[in-house]
Amino acid sequence: MAEQVISATTQRAARNAVVRAVAEVLGKVATLAWTVAAARMLPADDFGAVFYALTIMLVLTSLAAWGFDSGLTRRGSAVPESLPRLFRATQVWKSALSVPLLLAAGLLLAGVPAVGSWTVLVLMLAAGLPELWSQTIRTAAACRQVSAGVSTALVVQRVATAAAVLAALGAGTGAEGVAAGFLAGTVVGWLAHVLAARRLDVRQPLRGLERADLAAAVRETVLVGVSGLVLMLLFRVDVLILGQLEGAGSVAVYTVAYRLLETVLFVTYAINAAVLPVLSSTRSRETRLLGCERAIAVGGFVYLPFVAVALTEGEDVIDLLFGATYAGPAAPVLAWLAPAAMLLALASFTDSLLHVLGRHRALLASSSVALGVNVALNLALIPVLGATGAAVATTLSYLVQAVVVLTFLQRAGERPRVLSPLLSSGAASLVLVVLLVLLHLPVLVELVVGAVVYLGAWLLLVRRFAPEQQQVLVGLVRRRRVAA
């Protein structure tokens, strides 16, 4: 009976993860497309200023988001009938916090040198509002464990943003045009999310909202909200410090490598968005640990070969996408950033266990320690190593976070296995490294050949040592075809 529950849980999480992952892949391709175009067509300082303003917006909206979405996930998954009122209350809280916060930021940060044009800053900050609202709709869809509608909306948003930005670049409107295109795409995406929300049965008239609903939405969100803000700073503080110490040009170099890292992080977000509601709805320790370990295995399948490619072919990949201007300076940045993908995934999946267990103080402690390490290392390394120093700080801070989270889980008696789910993908990635070092072909050919060899080596290993990993990924592929 327990095995049937685990199987049903895994299948449901896998189905939602695949739908979300397909949308994330399409969205990431669209985002990468306009980023590549902007890097090639804008001066380095303008390119860096756009992403510096984007980073400010993401940090501020993380503060406005607080812990509302996490609370909505936990309570909306456990008590589905409460979801409509909690959903509306969450939107009210987010709007009430974000409007004054973004207005104040637009006035106070206008003189920051790395921001560049004030128009760019204002347009990027304005995009924060519709993005906050869209995030809550995606959270409600995760509570319902129905991902198709919001996944389509996410694709619409990314594609619309890419189209608007590319049109602005083609018209020669510079950094201001890129920021305006980003805002336009975000608004279109929010409208698509609103349409998707009609299928989620979360309609709740604003006039029918009561104080009890607002109180329920904010209850027990303080620690989660502070933790979420700390996590966002952990993810973005390197860009803020780099811009202040080195200027927009260094931000541009760092952004090139960082965008490649972000492009592959969809696996973490897709799996976490699908697994967290399932973990929240089960009381089985065995199910929780199994879900976390399988999430780690899928993460390793994607991220360990990414590290191999970044170490051996990083400069050629950057040259192919962003041009020779960034290839040399950004290659060592990418090499140091690449391991952060696996470490971030490990920290995220184990964070979800802590969240389900209600260990919010442990969540805050782990992210705070990592943030402190990150800030200290950035301040020490950026003056010496520039953008590469920021990359070193990022990767080491995620390593610290993962270690601290695992320590807390061990004390709670629910520590998942970490190394064994990664053995097959790790060994196959070593084979990939050797192959890429020995090959001397065009980079695209090497990547195709490397992918085939890596997959073959991985299949041989998992069939012998971890057949359950093959079953999970085969199920993901089959569901991906259905979703497509």
From TrEMBL:
InterPro entries: Poly_Biosynth_Transport, Polysacc_synth. Its main location: membrane. Pfam families: Polysacc_synt. It is found in: Cell membrane. The chain crosses the membrane at residues 49-68, 101-127, 148-171, 177-196, 217-237, 257-279, 291-311, 331-350, 362-384, 390-409, 421-441, 447-466. Keywords: Cell membrane, Membrane, Transmembrane, Transmembrane helix. It comes from the Bacteria. It is a multi-pass membrane protein. This is Polysaccharide biosynthesis C-terminal domain-containing protein. It comes from Nocardioides cremeus.
